[in-house]
Design a protein that fits this description.
Blueprint: H1 2-89, H2 92-109, E1 115-123, E2 131-140, E3 143-149, H3 155-164, H4 168-171, E4 179-186, H5 191-199, E5 203-207, E6 212-214, H6 217-220
Parallel strand pairs: 3-4, 4-5
Antiparallel strand pairs: 1-2, 2-3, 5-6
Helix pairs in contact: 3-5
């Protein structure tokens, strides 16, 4: 009888444990089911957000294509404007330097030019197939002023101008008895160009606040 009761108690304990395990599994399944539902809901939200993101990316790509088109159009317009500006800078000699040079010669050197030649294009007196153009040549008393104007006054251009002075009178031998006064000019001049010109006795002329001025007059020496 005791053995039977013990077996019954064991069975009851096993049944109770089975019930607890089943209940625990049911709670786990319920929680898992809720989490799955939440996950599915999040996935649907994520998918919706991805659709929105893809749509936004397509709009962004379209806007970028429009932007590239606008940039190409803008570049063409800027190229045109730079071309116009370059053409205009090509007339700096005629529009600014030539009209202002007599005043500079008067204020800095105390002379009025007797002769002024702008874009002076001549052939070499002995080698007739050689042609050279001087921006401005101005004769005043015992001096002849030679002006070279650059819209982009790089140092290499200043060097070329200085080197070209050696054979100046080969091209204009009738002025060989005059003192050559070289002037290198632009709308503005970098400091290194001014220093280079000053070291070589060449005047540096640029546009000041409202008029042309020689900025290294004291360094080279006005006469």
């Amino acid at each position: 009888m005791a053995d039977a009761n013990e077996r019954i108690n064991t069975i009851e304990r096993d049944l109770a444990e089975t019930v607890r395990i089943q209940q625990r599994n049911e709670r786990f399944l319920e929680r898992f089911s809720r989490e799955m539902d939440e996950f599915k809901s999040e996935m649907r939200t994520f998918q919706s957000e991805m659709k929105d993101f893809k749509s936004e990316m397509l709009e962004f790509k379209s806007e970028m294509l429009d932007f590239k088109d606008e940039m190409r159009a803008s570049k063409r317009e800027m190229d045109r404007k730079w071309g116009d500006l370059a053409n205009k800078l090509g007339t700096v000699v005629e529009d600014i330097i030539a009209p202002g040079l007599p005043g500079v010669l008067r204020s800095c050197f105390g002379v009025d030019p007797d002769e002024v030649y702008v874009r002076y294009r001549i052939r070499h007196p002995r080698t007739r197939d050689r042609v050279r153009e001087f921006d401005i040549v101005a004769v005043a008393g015992e001096r002849i002023f030679l002006n070279e104007t650059k819209s982009n006054p790089r140092l290499e251009y200043a060097r070329e101008f200085v080197e070209s002075l050696d054979d100046f009178f080969e091209w204009l031998p009738r002025y060989r008895h005059l003192q050559l006064v070289p002037i290198f000019s632009s709308l503005s001049l970098p400091d290194d160009v001014i220093a280079y010109l000053s070291d070589r006795g060449v005047y540096a002329m640029m546009l000041g606040e409202d008029h042309l001025e020689i900025v290294n007059l004291e360094d080279v020496g006005g006469t």
